[in-house]
Amino acid sequence: MIPRFKSALGWPECFAALRPSRADRVEQFERAFADELGVAHAVAFAYGRTALWAMLKALGIEDAEVIIPAYTCVVVAHATVESGNRPVFVDITERDFNMDFDLLADAFSERTRMVIPTHLFGYPMDTDRVAEIVQDAEKRYGHRIWVLQDCAHSFDAAIEGRRVCLAGDAALFAFNIAKYMTSIGGGMITTGDAELADKLRDCREAHCRRPPWYKPWERRAYCLAAMAAFSSLGYGLTWGLEHGTSLLDSEVKYYNDKTIELPNDFLRLMTPVEAAVGCVQLRRLRQFEARRRAIARRYHEALADVSHLAMPPLQEGATYSHFIALLAAGIRRGEYVSFMARRGVDIGCVIQYSVPHMAAYEKLLGPPAHPVARKASERIINLPISAVLSDRAVDRVRAAVREYDGRSLA
Prior knowledge:
Elements: H1 11-18, H2 25-37, E1 41-45, H3 48-58, E2 65-69, H4 74-82, E3 86-90, H5 101-104, E4 112-115, H6 127-141, E5 146-150, E6 158-159, E7 162-163, E8 170-174, E9 187-191, H7 194-207, H8 215-229, H9 235-244, H10 249-252, H11 272-282, H12 285-303, E10 309-310, E11 323-327, H13 333-342, H14 359-365, H15 371-379, E12 380-383, H16 391-409
Parallel strand pairs: 2-3, 2-4, 4-5, 5-8
Antiparallel strand pairs: 1-9, 6-7, 8-9, 10-11, 11-12
Helix pairs in contact: 1-8, 1-11, 2-11, 3-4, 3-7, 12-16
């Protein structure tokens, strides 16, 4: 079974995790990450959602509005609410599943204090255009509006040669097992603003506690287990447990449609074990980028003419954390996923919800009006892509997609 996502964990990461932890490992990871992305400061947290929560707290933003896309990871909205603020959702485009610029300007109000451009699936938004819209809103309402680039899926994506993580006031990253690179867990905020970096560190010191003594050992065990689970021999068992039992629910089901909450341990510090794994992964970041772009090109070359999938165009500067396509109307996603599984290809959807359409947010904000986000949540699929996916596996995926297309046209 070819996994729809596969972390690039290997023995170097496991050896790094198993070695005795140095007390300064997290600081070392912060410095290395900042240097790699060409920014002055990086501040590490337990999760990406913790980093966002801390950013809002550090800036004293409360009882305000934060603009985010309607189609994004729900934890962005959760962290916004849990920080004492209100999300304002902007619908997306079908071209790249990012916020619709034609709708963005109308989302601002006198209560807006932050906007979070999300470069979803590695497709970069035009950060200059975002900046122009924000500047117009600042003039209109007479106060500063912070811009936090959500780079959890994009890392070093660029638009016309400009790295999106360097735009705005800061950038947000996450490192869980499904991300572009992983430290097993954790998140990071980068910024060129020394004063903001100091505020983030002060906020972390005030609110985040040291993890319990067993947490580093738990992270080591997770690293080894993840490497085994995504191996060529182990993934068949992993897939069976995920789809046939509830044993892995705590790992693969990270939200409840009816509740707005963050994990119990979201206010803990990143462990040195996580940072050690992150340092090893960081040295392979450029390799990851090159391989994902190569796989995306192979998919486009072979599948551009299939009738049942609409794919975003190949985009210069995109980093392809996922390879996304939109199923044609009338095709049932569950049946399509089952067809591919019978051919040994695990596909699915990364984000299977439109956040404003979730029960908890309909209750909080009222009836939603974000049709494209709703459509994406119902019809998007994710073809396997990772930095360690072989050409042979890519060819198997392409063959399975073309086989379905032949059946659908028959």
